[in-house]
Each structure stands twice: as structure tokens, then as C-alpha cells.
């Protein structure tokens, strides 16, 4: 739900984003990353008030480099995001929520962007935008102890708003989240088991075929023929290979040869 994701960003970063396209500069994603990994992103180079495409692209490149610094293996479709493709922004924002919302923050969002260009007063500028935000406030964002009093007051006000928009709120349920995560793991485990069983069947079939070939060659009256020697040699390497991989897929193959 876009509204829920934007409510999370607004609450967590202390901003007033109304549409997902407002995040196309990448600055807020950098800000979000810096809350959890302040030592792995160059926030002094992030531009919160950039208008030119080359500066916007630089923000996204800073974020991509930061991902690599902490071994987050996710490619960022920079061109699509700069152009404001809502679907790409929605996918990235959903991923960011799934990845970051349960992590422990290192510093608060306002401090994290205080040394960026336009970052110190960014939350005030966003709050002074014309019109009121149509984004419903959600209740699942907890206020960490590190937040200052002004941020806590902002969160309290947002919580009050969320009560008035209760029908649109989707509270975060950690138990339900764990259930879904466990279910996904079980499905992956079952799929891996099926693939492993398929490999075992294929291994057995091929090994039996080569065993029959080896028996025919061993029973041939002239063992000195070059063709027989070559087939026996190939069969030997194949048997050695199957015996080696048998240790990795948990099934001995001695009984097949016998």
C-alpha cells in the first residue's frame, strides 16, 4: 500500500512526502540508509534540493556505492527512478521497508542529513509545502530512545492522526510477519528438497547406465583393444565423480555398482 509506505517514510524521516515521485532525487533513500549505516555513506555529498539530472544521478550513485559497502546485493534502476517511474519507486520503497523497518537505528534522521546540501532544514521545507498531506499516518513506527524531543512530539501528533484515520491504517504485526517469513522459508525448503530428489534420481539413472557399459567392456574378450581401454578409463572417471558428489547429496552409490 503506497499510503502506508509513505506514512512510514514521513514518520521515520520526519518529513512530509505526499507522493512517491517526490523521492526520485534519491536523497531520502540516502537519509534512510544513513540512519542505520552512518559510517558507510557519504551524506556530505548528498543533495536534498537538487534539480538537475546529473546531481540527482549522483545521489543514486552514492546510495548504490553505500549498498556495496555493506554487501547489500541490489541493483538500483537509476534511469527509471530519475524519470519518476512510479512502479520502480514503489518496488524500491517496499524493499526498503522490508529491509530497514525492523533494524535498530544508529542515529536519528534529522542528524543524519544535517551536513547534506539542503538537508538541515529539509523537514521544515517539506512541512511548509502548500496544502495538507493526504497521506494517512500509520502506527507501526516506534520512536527510538535516541530521538530528540521535537521528533517525539512529531511522532505523537502523527499517532493522534492515525487514530482519526484508523480505517486506512495497517498496523505492523510482528507475529504475522514472522509467520509469513516462516512460511516462505518452508516453501523454499520444500522446493530445495524436490530439486535434490530430482538430482538423486538423475544420478542413479546415469550411474546405472555407465555401470552397464563398464560391465560390457569388462566382459569383452580382448581387453587390449584401444576402444575398450578408452571406455574403461572414461567409466573410471565417471565412477570417481559420482562417488565424490555422493557425499554432497547424502546418498552412497556403492550398492549400485554391486
Walk me through the topology.
Layout: H1 2-13, H2 27-36, H3 53-69, H4 78-82, H5 86-100, H6 109-112, H7 122-127, H8 149-164, H9 174-218, H10 226-249, H11 254-257
Helix pairs in contact: 2-3, 9-10
Describe this structure as you would to a colleague.
This is Calponin-homology (CH) domain-containing protein. Residues 1-101 form the Calponin-homology (CH) domain. Residues 182-209 form a coiled coil. By secondary structure, this protein is mainly alpha-helical. It has 2 domains: 2-172, Calponin-like domain (Actin-binding Protein, T-fimbrin, domain 1, Orthogonal Bundle), CATH 1.10.418.10; 175-257, no CATH class. Helix content is 61%, strand content 0%. It has 11 helices and no strands. It has helices at 2-13, 27-36, 53-69, 78-82, 86-100, 109-112, 122-127, 149-164, 174-218, 226-249, 254-257. Helix 9 (174-218) packs antiparallel against helix 10. The longest helix has 45 residues, at 174-218. The N and C termini lie far apart (61 Å). Residues 130-170 and 251-258 have low confidence and may be disordered.
Amino acid at each position: 500500500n503506497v499510503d502506508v509506505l509513505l506514512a512510514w517514510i514521513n514518520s521515520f524521516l520526519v518529513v512530509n512526502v505526499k507522493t512517491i515521485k517526490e523521492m526520485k532525487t534519491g536523497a531520502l533513500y540516502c537519509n534512510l540508509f544513513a540512519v542505520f549505516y552512518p559510517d558507510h555513506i557519504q551524506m556530505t555529498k548528498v543533495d536534498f534540493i537538487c534539480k538537475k539530472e546529473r546531481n540527482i544521478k549522483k545521489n543514486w550513485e552514492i546510495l548504490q556505492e553505500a549498498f556495496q559497502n555493506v554487501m547489500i546485493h541490489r541493483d538500483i534502476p537509476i534511469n527509471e527512478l530519475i524519470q519518476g517511474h512510479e512502479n520502480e519507486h514503489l518496488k524500491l520503497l517496499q524493499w526498503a521497508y522490508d529491509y530497514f523497518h525492523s533494524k535498530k537505528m544508529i542515529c536519528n534522521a534529522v542528524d543524519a542529513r544535517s551536513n547534506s546540501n539542503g538537508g538541515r532544514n529539509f523537514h521544515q521545507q517539506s512541512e511548509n509545502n502548500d496544502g495538507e498531506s493526504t497521506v494517512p499516518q500509520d502506527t507501526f513506527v516506534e520512536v527510538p530512545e535516541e530521538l530528540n524531543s521535537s521528533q517525539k512530539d512529531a511522532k505523537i501528533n502523527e499517532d493522534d492522526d492515525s487514530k482519526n484515520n484508523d480505517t486506512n491504517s495497517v498496523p505492523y504485526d510482528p507475529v504475522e510477519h514472522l509467520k509469513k517469513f516462516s512460511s516462505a522459508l518452508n516453501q523454499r525448503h520444500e522446493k530445495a528438497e524436490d530439486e535434490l530428489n530430482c538430482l538423486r534420481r538423475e544420478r542413479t539413472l546415469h550411474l546405472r547406465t555407465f555401470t552397464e557399459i563398464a560391465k560390457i567392456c569388462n566382459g569383452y574378450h580382448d581387453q587390449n583393444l584401444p576402444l575398450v581401454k578408452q571406455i574403461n578409463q572414461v567409466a573410471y572417471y565417471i565412477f570417481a565423480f559420482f562417488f565424490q558428489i555422493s557425499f554432497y547429496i547424502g546418498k552412497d552409490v556403492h550398492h549400485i555398482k554391486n
